[in-house]
Design a protein that fits this description.
The structure is a homodimer of 596-residue chains.
Chain A lengths: L7 H11 L2 H6 L9 H19 L3 H7 L2 E3 L4 E3 L4 H10 L18 H14 L1 H20 L2 H13 L2 E6 L15 E4 L5 E11 L8 E8 L12 E6 L1 E3 L5 E4 L2 E6 L10 E14 L5 H37 L23 H33 L3 H36 L11 H10 L7 H13 L5 H17 L6 H27 L2 H32 L6 H17 L2 H11 L2 H4 L7
Parallel strand pairs in A: 3-6
Antiparallel strand pairs in A: 1-2, 4-5, 5-11, 6-7, 7-11, 8-9, 10-11
Helix pairs in contact in A: 1-10, 3-6, 6-7, 6-9, 6-10, 7-8, 7-9, 9-10, 9-11, 9-12, 10-11, 10-16, 10-17, 11-12, 11-13, 11-16, 13-16, 14-15, 15-16, 15-18, 16-17, 16-18
């Protein structure tokens, strides 16, 4: 069975040495009292919970899966899941970054994000229960009425209740404008909602006494398409005005999906049969309201694959040090043993270092981005807020798509390190691969993310936000331009920066002639920009590591070696991506539909 | 549930138009009577069997898996598997390419390979039962004594018995030199064999009355390492001299592996407790004998991923034409429908065309290579035989690694086309991905294949075989050099050819200084050479398609479009691979083992 050690040292490096988050957070009125010790202590305690309570349930949760009782419509989660959730609630973990006005601890999102990385490493399927709940909390916090907030937020904050997001229907996922679930206004101001939802994560389970569903549906007078969708709160049990639980509402789990992975999470078909709900936000503006939740969820999905990459890496390293097989081509490395540990074989190292670099790169990108989320949410400076919002919007699709694609590659490499044993369930590696696969799909497929990045976030404002981010990179390059030791990092960084500028302009020009050129280039483009961000952060990390080299602390030697590996072996992927992006639309459209 | 349509038209193109196999095969004495009609009729009938009998059992076989009765040590296969095998035997399919001297039909390996592509598309897990059996047949045919052949080959030919290969042990797979299973000589010339084997595909099942295990074990006087391994026949039931079944032998299935995929195949732990066996070939030369089987198996594994790529592609196309979601960025393509079929979205096409090009490229490479197998086996011209053997040896690791890595990419893309539905078992796509994953591991991991290619097949003879293959490419380029319409194919082909030459020389030089440089570059190198072969075959296919363009047959338009897609969007992967291969060993070795 896999094990998990929270990577606290690297987290501290990213938080305190690379991004100096305490100083940044202290500028925000809500966080003026934050300090490094608090952050470190929370992560250390959180790490214990993840490695000791949640991680041991991952493999068994995958084997057991969830069971639906078709008579009661209740779902039984795998053994130990419910008890672990009780510990989670008792530990106050759901409240970590919630609003103190509703009982939260008010810690920065940055801290919560790092805690979630560990939860995801330990058990992605389990973590989706509180994870979805947190998304529902954020959506209601942003768009609910005072009454709705008072009724629901305290229970979501303590974790006594959990939440879901009910979007997808059998005929529409990406294209929510086509959804058919109906909401009929009632005399008392409530709505009766009827329809069929699928793929509802944590839609029904046995953790809590009530589940707060956020449901997208269409009012009778709704315009067609995505501008006619409204958002409703539909609790499993109706909630009385005093907050007590009322009668069962007509929203039921009517089936569980049989999935490739995340078996421990209940992915539900939900049937609404005149279920009573209340409107959240304005009529027909439900999709915008839901996007608060979706954007947070997209960061969360990237974080899931970061977690999986880290835990897969850790276990593959252990195996590679332990497993004896063949001699190194350059001669025995462990002459006292019948064969060399496979970590001495160059390609095994390449697979391990790929996973390591993807994890460390993702951790830096996540931290940088979620710090913008803290600024966007908490800053009292309008300019800073706007800048942070724009950068957050730019980086969110990159986090979702780049990190999850990398996670798929990395977990598969880590499986491969195990040889045939990697294919066997008991070793746990194949589960990481299966779990990682969903992250490329849900909360907007990675193709949708790439269209969001290139079409909306870059081309729609003539690349202004990207240029702003690029300016930070240019300043760093300028600063380090005379530092000889940094040339190996700064030169390729400058090169990829120039190439991104040129590629962006080229696609922008082509898109004038045919907007489908955006669709043809977007996926490659997103990965190129993803590499630009990784190259930037690895160069910054290398600068610190070089400065600390004399300390003799092996952490910095490892950081330098990982950065060098990244520049030598991973960044060159951009050579292909730029070529295929430039090859454009024609090779994709030449074949008639009928000839496929 | 997925469906499968045998791609007979493309098979005929590859066989008859591209490689003109009938003329080639007619030169071989054993096949002088072969004709296209026979080949086409066999494939058409075989295709029906695959799509109508085997394919419908794929999804259910995955759900049910195999069950071991721990008291009887018998394994129950999924519902319908056994009956399908009976039909397979009744149809005479096991005998297709077997030696007429033992009851076989004596058809070329080329025909059998195409038939197996269809079996693999239909149901990889089921196909492994007869597939392993065929490997055992070939090994015994090459290395068995006359008595052994008479006793076993007729039953393996009819399919009344099946075979296995028992190599792996818990502590060794790649490094078989470490294996511990012991064989003790008995007074009657037989051996008593004791040990523990794992990962034995089709090791125990309910299809047949007897299973012929080929077991690697160590004699008492065996030298250490891989030069002390001998090969034995160990039947499940002892076989009397007259061919009748005797008493149960002491080889038992002691456990079934829980795997990521190929659930319908029984992957067994086998315990030998003084099981009686007879020696095959010379003492201590078992590994060489087994390599006959392994090389055939490696072609077979490439063929498995070709089959999966084809069937995943077919189903993803159907879904992409049917599923309505969003409008094309360039405006509605199906204005009468609520949204456009997703096949109009450029990135969906890119995913589909990637799978299509990988399937068509693999089919060409497989056909070309297995034709060399026919020549190597059947030619009466010693020079032709040697050339064919060398080319077969060169291309086998490319087929194994390149096609299976591509199959992983392609099946994952096809899953992605389905969005969230791709993650759901009932659609069948996630099974293709899970099944495809093992192909990168078994019969020698893809890293082992790349070391075999670069270290043994290329550098050990100073690239002589590769140069010979390169000469064919150069001749084709020369021929087409003045054909303007072919420039778009021939120029990039010439370019990648030059780059392979240069890269091979560079790595060869570096390997003098440090043999580990081979291990650092091998995986990237294999993919570059794989692309060289695909580029060559797609260019040749394009030449034919261009010549036939005037015919108006849409098949040739599609072939041209696929070739163009390949050159524009897939071949550029070499830009990255060459860079990372050249980056060499240093970035992999900089980190101390302890720092991982």
């Amino acid at each position: 069975m896999p094990t998990y050690n929270p990577p606290l040292r690297d987290m501290q490096f990213v938080l305190h040495e690379l991004f100096n988050v305490v100083d940044e957070l202290k500028m925000l009125p809500a966080h003026q009292d934050i300090d490094a010790d608090t952050i470190n202590a929370v992560l250390e305690e959180g790490g214990k919970f993840c490695s000791q309570v949640i991680a041991p349930l991952n493999l068994s949760g995958d084997s057991e899966g969830c069971q639906l009782n078709r008579d009661t419509h209740e779902v039984q989660t795998p053994k130990g899941f419910k008890e672990a959730y009780q510990q989670y609630v008792e530990g106050g973990w759901p409240a970590l970054s919630c609003d103190p006005a509703y009982g939260g601890q008010g810690l920065p999102f940055t801290v919560n994000q790092f805690f979630y990385e560990m939860l995801n490493s330990a058990n992605q399927a389990w973590t989706m229960y509180p994870g979805l709940s947190h998304g529902a909390y954020e959506c209601l916090h942003a768009h609910g009425t005072d009454d709705q907030k008072k009724l629901y937020l305290p229970k979501l904050t303590t974790g006594e209740w959990t939440g879901t997001m009910c979007l997808t229907e059998p005929h529409c996922g990406t294209d929510l404008g086509m959804l058919r679930t109906k909401a009929e206004p009632q005399a008392d101001g409530s709505y009766k909602i009827t329809g069929q939802k699928i793929f509802i994560s944590a839609g029904e389970h046995d953790f809590v006494e009530n589940i707060v569903h956020l449901v997208l549906a269409r009012l009778p007078d709704a315009p067609q398409g995505s501008k006619g969708i409204s958002l409703f709160i539909v609790p499993k049990f109706k909630v009385n005005a005093d907050g007590s639980i009322g009668e069962r509402n007509a929203i039921f789990c009517s089936g569980l999906e049989h999935k490739m992975g995340i078996h421990g999470n209940s992915t539900c078909q939900m049937t609404l049969d005149g279920a009573v709900g209340t409107l959240v936000g304005q009529p027909h503006k439900g999709l915008q309201a839901m996007f608060v939740m979706m954007n947070a969820a997209r960061l969360g999905v990237g974080n899931q694959s970061l977690g999986l990459t880290e835990v897969a890496y850790q276990n593959a390293v252990t195996y590679a040090k332990d497993r004896l097989q063949m001699r190194a081509l350059s001669g025995p490395k462990a002459p006292d043993k019948p064969a060399d540990p496979i970590i001495h074989h160059p390609d095994v190292r390449k697979m391990l270092l790929t996973a390591r670099a993807f994890a460390e790169g993702a951790r830096m990108l996540q931290a940088y981005t979620v710090l913008q989320l803290d600024k966007a949410f908490y800053s009292d400076d309008e300019d800073e807020k706007k800048d942070a919002e724009a950068e957050l919007a730019l980086l969110t699709p990159i986090i979702k798509a780049f990190i999850t694609d990398n996670g798929w590659i990395a977990t598969s490499h880590c499986l491969q390190v195990y040889g045939g044993h990697g294919y066997i369930h008991e070793w746990g590696m194949e589960q990481f691969v299966r779990d990682a696969r969903i992250n490329m799909i849900y909360e907007g497929t990675n193709t949708v993310q790439s269209l969001d990045l290139l079409g909306r976030k870059v081309l729609q404002n003539n690349g202004a936000t990207l240029k702003k981010f690029g300016k930070k990179i240019a300043e760093f390059i300028e600063e380090e331009g005379t530092n000889e030791a940094m040339q190996e990092f700064v030169n390729p960084l400058a090169d990829i920066g120039d190439k991104v500028t040129k590629l962006t302009q080229e696609i922008g020009m082509k898109a004038f002639a045919n907007p489908d050129e955006v669709g043809a280039a977007a996926v490659d483009y997103l990965r190129v920009v993803g590499h630009l961000t990784f190259a930037y952060f690895f160069a910054r990390a290398a600068k610190i590591a070089l400065a600390q080299e004399a300390s003799g602390d092996p952490f910095y030697r490892a950081k330098l070696a990982t950065a060098r590996f990244y520049f030598a072996k991973l960044l060159p992927e951009t050579a292909t991506l730029i070529r295929t992006a430039r090859a454009g639309l024609k090779p994709l459209m030449e074949m008639d539909e009928a000839l496929f």
